[in-house]
Amino acid sequence: MRLAEAWRVALDALRANRLRSLLTMLGVVIGVAAVVALVAIGTGTKEQIERQVEGLGSNLLLVVPGRIEAGSAPTSSPLTLDDIDAINRVVGDRTRVAVTIASGETVRAGSRTGFSSMQGVLETTPTVFVRRLDRGSYLTRTDVSTGRRVAVLGAGTARDLFADRDPIGRQITIGGVRFRVIGVFEPLGQSLGVDRDSEVHVPVTAAQRLLGTERIDGIAIRAPDRERIGELSDAVVAALAERHPDTDFSAVTQEQILGVLGDILGVLTGVLAAIAGISLLVGGVGVSNIMLVSVRERTKEIGLRKAVGARPRDIGVQFLLEAVLLTTTGGVLGMLLGGSAALLVDRLSPVPAALTWWSMALAFGVSAAVGIVFGVVPAQRAGRLDPVVALRTE
Amino acid sequence: MNTPAIVAEDVSRTYQLDGLSVPALRGVSLTVEPGDYVAIVGTSGSGKSTLMHLLGGLDRPTGGTLLIGGRDVARLTPNELAELRNTTIGFVFQSFHLLARTTAQDNVGLPLVYRGIGRRERRERAAAMLDRVGLAHRITHRPNQMSGGEQQRVAIARALVTGPSVLLADEPTGNLDSATGQSVLALLESLNDDGVAVVLVTHDREVAARARRQIVMRDGLISATR
Ligand SMILES: Nc1ncnc2c1ncn2[C@@H]1O[C@H](COP(=O)(O)OP(=O)(O)OP(=O)(O)O)[C@@H](O)[C@H]1O
Ligand SMILES: [Mg+2]
């Protein structure tokens, strides 16, 4: 029997029982739709986080004291501004090096108070990270070298302290010490669960005096290009190790952070998709069941086809195609449904979703495979029917 | 002399039913020559249908040898047997066995599907066959839109479309009134005149008398030949 003919017969059989075919398909439709939608949401979330990490700036290298390992205790930092001079010599461009010393502080303006993350930084922060100002200006080199008490507010802190008034030039206190506002950042929103709009940037020297310390917590370096990150990382860690023989230093690149996050999200998406896949399996069992019913109903037809020369294989292929047609049609419908659901979620809710061709291809492939796997038993049963017995059944 | 279309030698068929052996045929020998016209008669349960199924390659004997078109059925694989049914045998059943949702034309073309013949040619050959049985005007009708006599003619056209050398008809007039039965019988006889061997099961003595030979079955054995 020609394959085209077998398809035609299968299609005919499904059309003859339209409602039943549709209901049988439903299980597959729901399973495939769930897989496609969940994978889209997982992928969308992953892409969003990647964009946020990349939004920090490109070719970034973060250097911190201690080892970055699961279970290792945070090390108190031995780094000081003197180390930064040494690193500047290694890097050869001081605008590529940023530092931070962070501390949560109460901020106050008149009667209004707020809580923000005070960041003691160099004037180089905007050339290392991507950080845009909404108004005013950023810290200058003189601000840093003289320890001037000036501050640049995150959009959220500015709103909390000044509401609609212009904060530029006004006084605030940070941890009880007076600072003058010289700039306000553009809103950034959440990044990795941290509200980045409640930051307050002050000169690192001023922050150190306020906290009564010489230390700095971390260093960020922007490499001139991607290829040189590894080399630069080794050189910087070596320079620091020489100055502080008792301390380990770690350098991580943006790519490494993205890699770890990607792995975690990948596993999560996989687990979700697997759960959705179970419903696909249940749909497959439904298909198997209906195919067995179909074989029983059409026993006489099978007997007749055999009597006029159908080989066992011809009959088997016909029923297998019927099952595959059922599940792949369900698969296509499920793809459309899951795809629309994902787009709707992306449009109407804060959860991001991104459709990927591979999840669609996978869902289609799996639904075809479900048809084959769950169609094979009914098809074999049909193919093996004894024509005489089959013709006698009523 | 041509080789016989079908040769049965001491053929038996025993059914197994819940561990019980039911001998339906107990050693039947029979030769169907090309162009033959044989009527099989006998009481109900004497094994007529069982014999027909064996002669048509729908079933295999449990004893003896059976040659269809010169080939030993016992040595054929299921696929080869299917091919044999498709090429050398035409079967006509008492209850027609037409596909309900299918037109007369596509019902007749069905055996050609299993020869890998394309739809166009199938329809052409089916139309020619329907014309041959006098149903050129019923090509697009479905079984439920036709009379019993017309349905049996469609079934005969289907049996003939592959150009078989033997036509096996198990009570082909059993579900028809006598006038319609007569016309179906006339059709079978005209086919026989064209050289197709016809083997016919019937309960009607007059019908049987028109055949060239009569075989009387009783208790799974041939009790008489005329
Ligand atoms: N599948 C089967 N399993 C067990 N016994 C069977 C089977 N088919 C037929 N028989 C038995 O074999 C015997 C012959 O049956 P068969 O159908 O050949 O008779 P028949 O001569 O065609 O009868 P009728 O004139 O009523 O059609 C009967 O006794 C019947 O009960
Ligand atoms: Mg019978």
From TrEMBL, chain A:
All residue ranges annotated as the ABC3 transporter permease C-terminal domain in the record: 274-387
Top-level taxon of origin: Bacteria
Pfam family, one: FtsX
UniProt membrane topology term: Multi-pass membrane protein
Annotated MacB-like periplasmic core domain residues: 21-238
Keyword Cell division: no
Principal location listed in the UniProt entry: membrane
Residue spans crossing the bilayer: 21-42, 264-294, 315-337, 357-377
Compartments (UniProt record): Cell membrane
Keywords, sorted A to Z: Cell membrane, Membrane, Transmembrane, Transmembrane helix
Family of this protein: Belongs to the ABC-4 integral membrane protein family.
Name listed for the protein in its UniProt record: ABC transporter permease
The organism of origin for this protein: Actinoplanes flavus
TrEMBL record, chain B:
Presence of keyword Transport: yes
Recorded GO MF terms: ATP binding
CDD domains given in the database record: ABC_MJ0796_LolCDE_FtsE
InterPro entries in the record: AAA+_ATPase, ABC_transporter-like_ATP-bd, ABC_transporter-like_CS, ABC_transpr_LolD-like, MacB-like_ATP-bd, P-loop_NTPase
Keyword list, A-Z: ATP-binding, Nucleotide-binding, Transport
SMART domains listed in its UniProt record: AAA
Positions of the ABC transporter domain: 6-225
Keyword ATP-binding attributed: yes
PROSITE patterns cross-referenced by the UniProt entry: ABC_TRANSPORTER_1, ABC_TRANSPORTER_2
Designated name of the protein: ABC transporter ATP-binding protein
Species per Swiss-Prot/TrEMBL record: Actinoplanes flavus
